[in-house]
Design a protein that fits this description.
Blueprint lengths: L2 E7 L3 E8 L2 E9 L9 E10 L4 E5 L6 E4 L5 E3 L6 E3 L5 E3 L4 E3 L28 E8 L8 E3 L4 E2 L3 E4 L5 E3 L6 H15 L5 E4 L8 H24 L4 E4 L4 H9 L4 E6 L7 E4 L11 H22 L4 E6 L6 H15 L6 E6 L4 E6 L6 H5 E3 L8 E3 L1 H19 L3 E6 L1 H10 L1 H11 L2 E6 L8 E5 L4 E2 L3
Parallel strand pairs: 1-18, 15-16, 19-20, 25-26
Antiparallel strand pairs: 1-2, 2-3, 4-5, 4-11, 4-17, 5-6, 7-10, 8-9, 11-12, 13-14, 14-16, 20-22, 21-22, 23-24, 25-27, 27-28
Helix pairs in contact: 4-5, 7-8, 8-9
């Protein structure tokens, strides 16, 4: 059944609709007014333990304490064939509730906890204890977030569970042979790593190298989380989940989706194209292509960091026929991205030389910082932001003073610019006037272009800067 994914994004909310054969089947909405916490990892501090209710309240740095039930402490499934799917909101949906507690405490001879629990929650955690927890349910009304110590790190094809030891395969993969193949690959990888895995539907048909690559990435991500948690004091945010749009692409863009439509220039995808340019090599075309791709890796990573590119990134390397050549380029790209402080998830390199990756933005991009939506063309282009224009204007005033050698200047600028100077940068303007001993008059003109300004010497001629 063919699917379509439609994403609408504005300053108020992001909406995602899933259509099957043209009929609306699912809809997801995420509002932007409230900070999203679902899937985030926090280093929390236990503030209260209530054994009669088998719950604890944990301070994770939000307005209200989070709620931790004994059932949300470390689990290990008793059923190896347990399966799990995860929707775009990060909710885990288990096929069977067959989990048993996997805790270090020794169970009592008789059940102390009621409802089959061999422990009281006070046997396991205590007040002021610090815990690494993940938000499983957003705060609702007067209730705080519900958290769990059963950490899950979802990838596109695999969910990594560092506190478990089981391997599960999605039942949506109907072929028993394929399920066994994927489970055996996971067992081979698991032999030298801790944790368990849920193999998702998107893993169907993956090669061993593709499958292994994502698992290795998730394990590396978990190690980084652990190191970050050690450096932070409770309560604090340790790791933030992907944005709503990126989660949609990660979790829902499967082989049966024929198109993904987005009505905004959110960072739907960044495409980087590699070509040989003037690099023609000598006589061996395969080695020439390999050399060009290897050389391009460093520049690709540099540009990603320099521009702070985020969201989905596809790098289109020059086609390489040799499998060994593709592996060399992919390995070098992985090594280069280890220096990147932003969180990245790099997938396999295809036969056509395409590498897909996601990258979490760490700060506003340069274009966002320096520019804003143009009020003159209804958002179809960009102009310099008011902050940038004001900075340029202050510099121009200094240049005009030096050029004219006159202490009396009259400046005319767009009314938004003048208003911003008076409300946000009055101190900067006052310092400049004091430094240059200026007699400065600032006038507003609503008809003047946002980026334009005019400088006059006193009440006389207009000054044009060199």
């Amino acid at each position: 059944m063919e699917k379509e994914i439609l994403i609408s994004d504005d300053e108020y909310e992001t909406r995602c609709a899933v259509l099957e054969e043209g009929v609306l089947n699912e809809i997801y909405i995420e509002r932007k007014a409230a900070a999203q916490t679902l899937g985030n990892l926090y280093k929390g501090r236990v503030e209260n333990v209530l054994p009669g209710m088998q719950v604890a309240f944990v301070d994770i740095g939000l307005d209200r304490h989070a709620f931790l039930h004994i059932s949300d402490l470390k689990y290990e499934s008793a059923n190896e064939d347990e399966t799990e799917d995860e929707n775009v909101n990060g909710n885990r949906k288990l096929d069977k509730d067959v989990s048993t507690l996997d805790l270090k405490a020794k169970p009592a001879k008789q059940s102390r906890g009621g409802r089959g629990f061999p422990f009281l929650i006070s046997d396991l955690i205590s007040k002021r204890q610090e815990l690494l927890v993940q938000v499983g349910k957003e705060p609702i009304g007067t209730k705080g977030a519900r958290v769990t110590s059963n950490i899950t790190l979802p990838g596109r094809c695999v969910v990594y569970m560092p506190n478990s030891s089981n391997i599960g395969v999605s039942r949506r993969i109907e072929s028993a042979t394929e399920r066994d193949r994927l489970r055996n690959m996971a067992k081979t990888i698991k032999a030298d790593v801790e944790g368990g895995f849920i193999i998702r539907t998107a893993a169907e048909g993956l090669s061993e190298s593709e499958f292994s690559s994502e698992i290795r990435y998730l394990i590396k991500q978990w190690k980084q989380i652990g190191e970050r948690a050690k450096r932070k004091s409770a309560p604090s945010l340790v790791s933030k989940d992907l944005s709503f749009t990126n989660r949609v692409v990660r979790d829902m863009l499967t082989k049966d989706v024929k198109q993904l439509l987005i009505d905004s220039k959110t960072e739907a995808m960044v495409s980087i194209d590699v070509n040989t340019g003037r690099f023609v090599g000598k006589s061996d075309p395969d080695n020439t292509i390999l050399s060009a791709n290897l050389e391009a890796v460093e520049e690709v990573v540099r540009q990603i960091q320099l521009r702070d590119l985020g969201g989905i990134i596809v790098v289109d390397f020059i086609d390489m026929e040799e499998v060994s050549h593709r592996k060399r380029v992919f390995k070098l790209l992985q090594e280069a991205l280890r220096k990147d402080r932003a969180r990245t998830n790099i997938l396999h390199i295809s036969d056509l030389g395409l590498v897909e990756m996601t990258r979490q933005r760490t700060r506003p991009s340069l274009s966002t910082l320096l520019m804003e939506e143009c009020p003159y063309c209804d958002g179809h282009g960009t102009v310099l932001s008011i902050e940038t224009v004001v900075i340029q204007l202050l510099r121009a005033i200094k240049m005009a003073h030096n050029q004219a050698g006159h202490s009396e200047l009259r400046v005319i600028a767009n009314d938004y610019v003048v208003s911003h100077i008076k409300s946000q940068m009055a101190n900067k303007l006052q310092d400049l006037k004091k430094l240059l001993k200026l007699d400065l008059t600032l006038e507003a003109d609503a008809d003047l272009h946002l980026e334009d300004y005019r400088i006059f010497v006193g009440r006389g001629e207009e000054l044009f800067l060199d």
